[in-house]
Amino acid sequence: MSATRALLAEHSRRGAGIRRLLRLILVGFFVAVLITEPPVEHRIVCWVIVGCYLVWTLAVGALTRGGYERAERLSWLALFVDVATLAALTLITDSSASVSWTPYLLINGFFLIPVMAAAQLNPVVCVVVIAPAVLVYLVSGLLIRHVSEEPISYVLLRTAMLASVGLGAILLSRLQRSRVETIAGLLSDRNALLEEMVTLQQREQRDLAENLHDGALQYVLGARQELDDAVDGDPEAAERIDQALGEATRLLRSTMSQLHPAVLDTAGLLPALRDTIETFRARGRFRIELDSADWDDGLRTDADELLLTTTRELLTNVVKHAGARTVRIGLSRTGDTARLVIADDGRGMAGVDLDARLGEGHLGLASRRIRIEAAGGSIDFGPADPHGTVVEVRLPLSARPVRAVAPAAS
Known about the structure:
By secondary structure, the protein is of the alpha+beta class. Helices cover 68% and strands 10% of the residues. It has helices at residues 3-36, 43-63, 68-92, 102-106, 112-118, 123-148, 152-214, 216-230, 235-259, 262-266, 269-284, 304-322, 354-359, 364-374, and strands spanning 287-294, 326-334, 337-344, 378-383, 389-396. The chain has a five-stranded mixed beta sheet, covered by helices on one side. Helix 1 runs antiparallel to helix 7 and helix 11 (269-284) packs parallel to helix 12 (304-322). It is elongated, with a radius of gyration of 34 Å.
């Protein structure tokens, strides 16, 4: 679903809730009028209409939960039913106008129609519904004015006021839709820029890994090969040089793996995750438990790299800030959704505001959340029991063919 459509769907759902509330208020208004000023004739018919309208209101409330398209289709019909119900009650009680205030009270309910119409984001619906509502209000006012001998100018003024409210509702609906579309456009631009940034970052990391492999690492490996022939002096010095070069080789390999893990391409997410866990187990000096029973070793998806980099970012935060002794990682797949859970027994993250951290330039967790949400997923932080932090990541998956990548020379 596009950003614009997603926002329209969310605001449509909220608008449907407002309309449900207003219809229940309208039902309460009908009941109050029929009790305080019952019509002389057709009383039972009025109660039946009110009862049917209540059932209709509850049914519409249930049906509009079924999706954006259904809510849009029902909004037209529901608003016309609102107008028809008000018109029917007003005209049926018209015969009681000489002895009861019932029709004069019921006709005021028409002022809720523009508010209901404005609670959705389609100005065309507002026009199509409000125009007949104003016409019905005018006709109803003209039909009952002869009983109270109300001047026609009064009826016209009231109708003009309702039309003004309707115009305001139409303009408000148009403004609200414009705002939603503007926000959706900004969200789409943000996601596009984020994708560009991620692509650039991945390309730079891959290039840096290749440069390390083809440059510094080759020199170190060559030095080790030449060591046996070049050193004929102190054997202890040769051993120290060999140890130093060996450590440099290990560090370079580790850096290359962090920049672009070849194992992610050649073997899949789970082996790459195990390598990452070994690295952080040594760095953080804490115990890491991995539960991946529901994840196939050879599974490849488009979310692999994001899941791996998210795990690294979260483990980095555990190393720097948590002071944890045990970290538990769970990786599972349910249908087309991946679920990554990382829980630690450290200090916890009470009071951390990711938006504020992003605004201050701390791009770690906040930017990770943006990437996950841009990919259609979610990330949630919560307290662990009895202490610590639990982070749950959900990402949509799309399986892809295995990509055979030649292993780097060692």
